[in-house]
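Section 4.2 – Deliverable D4.2 (structural model, holo form)

The reporting period included a commitment to supply a predicted holo structure for the target in complex with UFG. Inputs used:
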Amino acid sequence: MILITGGMGYIGSHTCVALAGAAHELLILDNLSNSRIDVVNRLETLCGKRPGFVEGDVRDPVVLGEIFERHPITTVMHFAGFKAVGESVERPLEYYDNNVNGTLQLLAAMRRASVRTFVFSSSATVYGDPASVPIRENSPRSATNPYGRSKLIIEDILADLHCAEPEWNIPRLRYFNPVGAHESGLIGEEPRGLPNNLMPFIGEVAIGKREFLNIWGADYPTHDGTGVRDYIHVTDLAEGHVAALNYLNQNGGLITINLGTGKGYSVLDMVQAFERTIHCPIPYEFGPRRAGDIAQCWADPSLAYELLGWKAQKGLEQMCSDTWRWQQQCRQLNI
Ligand code: NAD
Ligand code: UFG
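Output (structure tokens):
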């Protein structure tokens, strides 16, 4: 059985569907700080079976102790954490507590229960402002904000742990920019308030919830002056976790893998792709650069293919049409 912390959230919920499709038994631990209880009903529909769900905090050793005592957990996938870069600058202590302390509590509980397989949600943010693209896993790492630093610290904790106790199996998966939603329209990203990220924002402009998109910076050294990122469909990302588990069943150890597509698209590329999907213009205005943003960032995903046999399958068109379907569903659900 796999314990999925943060399994009610955006990436965790899609990964639950992928894991259920590969016949894994699931138990979700989530404190619902950034998700809604009814996700579990929608997961039941998509998985064909209701996943186990415990409402609780990953920093709570009592809850963790009970989970490991009562359930035959063999693997932990750790999605729970805070993820908003700007908020992390304003509330660093909360970010270090939830992300770093949460991970430490979880690892300690796993060790007490002799569970030694830990899949970690890292991020392309650990590459800071990359000196060159595409980015390989051995590129230099740095952090420009507390969120990114929390990921760097956890990556280092995991390396130290594996060095001291080599029986641990630890994939550190570095996600690039997840977008899109499950094609059923039943699950997707549910940002609270003003979305930070580009795709949810475009979706809200498209549905009429926001008047226009602010494009943060038009003077970057990119093909059209706007920032370039490696957008990956969230269900491809979810499949990357299944592939990582399959790899671990054959080989153990500490591995670090980029999960991206290897393609970079600018903000304007994304706007135009969305316009093609909805056959309507997306109003936008150019604004100043956003603090802490980088010009461009995309993955060299070849190691994921070599080691895991995984590569992203879905293109921009599907990322946009699935985002759009989900956005329309959100209006119906009043999310
Ligand atoms: P999300 O906010 O949608 O999901 C996180 C889930 O964890 C939520 O359901 C939330 O309620 C839960 N949670 C938070 N703190 C908790 C705690 N202390 N105890 C129990 N549950 C808790 O975020 P997401 O986009 O699904 O991201 C999942 C992971 O992937 C995070 O670690 C994030 O840093 C990482 N990541 C995300 C992105 C991205 O762009 N979405 C990119 C790279 C890495
Ligand atoms: N952008 C806009 N307007 C917006 C929002 C974003 O122009 O309203 C631009 C940004 O300036 C950037 C691009 O769109 O050029 C992408 O921005 P996102 O906020 O969607 O994504 P980031 O690359 O800034 O960061 C995301 C996550 C991080 C994660 C990182 C790498 O928010 O947590 O991807 O995985 F670490």
